[in-house]
Write a structure and sequence with these properties.
Number of helices: 5
CATH superfamily of the largest domain: Bira Bifunctional Protein, Domain 2
Order of helices and strands: EHEEHEEEEHHHEEEEE
Oligomer: single chain
Strand order of the largest sheet: 1-2-3-7-6-5-4
Number of strands: 12
Radius of gyration: 17 Å
CATH class of the largest domain: Alpha Beta
Largest sheet: 7 strands, mixed
Strand content: 25-35%
Distance between the termini: 39 Å
Helix content: 25-40%
Shape: globular
Number of domains: 2
Structural class: alpha+beta
C-alpha cells in the first residue's frame, strides 16, 4: 500500500523529455526544495559510464533532485536509492518476487536486472560528494518491458521486467507514489543516524554476498569473494593476495 506523498517534496510529471536527470539539473536552480521529475517518454536516457538507457513505453524513468542534501555524501545516496527501490518493488511485485541489490546500483528481480540508478551532480563541489549545488538521483525501472539481451554488454545480468516476471501491470505514476515515500524514509534515517544502518540494511539485501564475483574497472579485472562494503560504500573483495577495497567497478557474476 502506498504511503502518503512526502511533505515538502515536489512532484513533476512530464509527457516527454530527453533525460529526467538532465531536466532535474536544469530545474534545480529554480527549486525551493527536493522534487521528483518523472516522464512518460524519455528519448536520451543515460546509464552508468555514458551508456544509453533504453525506455520502452510503460517503463519508469524518474529523478529526485536534491540541493545540499543534508551533508550526505553523493556516492552514499545510491545506497539509499537502492533500498527505496527495493521497498517500492516489493510493494509492486508482491511477496513471491525474489529481490536483491547488486553492487553498486542495480536492483534484481528473480535474478534479472529490473532497475538501475545513476547519480549526477552540478554546481559547487561537483564530483566531491559534499557541499554540492545539486544532485540528481536518476532511477529507471523496467515495469512493462525489458531491453533485449543484445542491448547489454556480454556477461551482464539479463534484463527483466516487472510485468513479465510477476504478471503485475504497474503504471509509472503509481510506482512513483511507492518510491517517493520509501526514499524519504531511508534518507531521513541516513540523515539522522548516518551511513551505518543504511550499510547494514543494504548488506541484508545484497546479491551474491559471500560468493565469487568479477570486478572490472576499465581494463583491470579482479576476481574474488564479495565480502561486503566499507563505510564509504566501496566494494570489499577477498582475493588470494588479501582483501581489496574497490570504490568503482562493474560487477559480473560467475566468479
Amino acid at each position: 500500500m502506498s504511503e502518503a506523498w512526502p511533505e515538502g517534496v515536489g512532484r513533476h510529471v512530464l509527457a516527454r523529455t530527453d533525460s529526467t536527470n538532465a531536466e532535474a539539473l536544469r530545474l534545480a536552480p529554480s527549486l525551493s526544495g527536493p522534487a521528483w521529475i518523472m516522464t512518460r517518454e524519455q528519448f536520451a536516457g543515460r546509464g552508468r559510464r555514458g551508456r544509453d538507457w533504453a525506455m520502452p513505453a510503460g517503463n519508469f524513468a524518474g529523478t529526485l533532485v536534491l540541493r545540499s542534501p543534508g551533508g550526505v555524501a553523493a556516492a552514499q545516496l545510491s545506497f539509499v536509492a537502492a533500498l527505496a527501490l527495493y521497498d517500492a518493488l516489493a510493494d509492486a511485485c508482491g511477496p513471491a518476487a525474489r529481490l536483491a541489490i547488486k553492487w553498486p546500483n542495480d536492483v534484481l528481480l528473480n535474478g534479472g536486472k529490473v532497475a538501475g540508478i545513476l547519480l549526477e551532480s552540478a554546481g559547487p563541489g561537483q564530483g566531491q560528494g559534499r557541499g554540492m549545488g545539486a544532485v540528481a538521483v536518476g532511477i529507471g525501472v523496467n515495469l512493462a518491458a525489458a531491453p533485449g539481451s543484445g542491448q547489454v554488454e556480454p556477461g551482464a545480468v539479463t534484463p527483466v521486467s516487472v510485468l513479465a516476471e510477476t504478471g503485475h501491470a504497474v503504471a509509472p505514476e503509481d510506482f512513483l507514489d511507492l518510491l517517493a515515500p520509501a526514499f524519504a524514509r531511508w534518507l531521513a534515517q541516513m540523515q539522522t543516524y548516518g551511513f551505518a544502518p543504511i550499510r547494514h540494511a543494504w548488506l541484508a539485501r545484497a546479491a551474491r554476498l559471500g560468493e565469487p564475483i568479477l570486478a572490472r574497472t576499465g581494463a583491470t579485472e579482479r576476481r574474488g569473494v564479495f565480502e561486503g562494503i566499507d563505510d564509504s560504500g566501496a566494494l570489499i573483495l577477498r582475493t588470494p593476495a588479501g582483501p581489496q577495497v574497490i570504490p568503482a567497478a562493474d560487477v559480473f557474476f560467475g566468479g
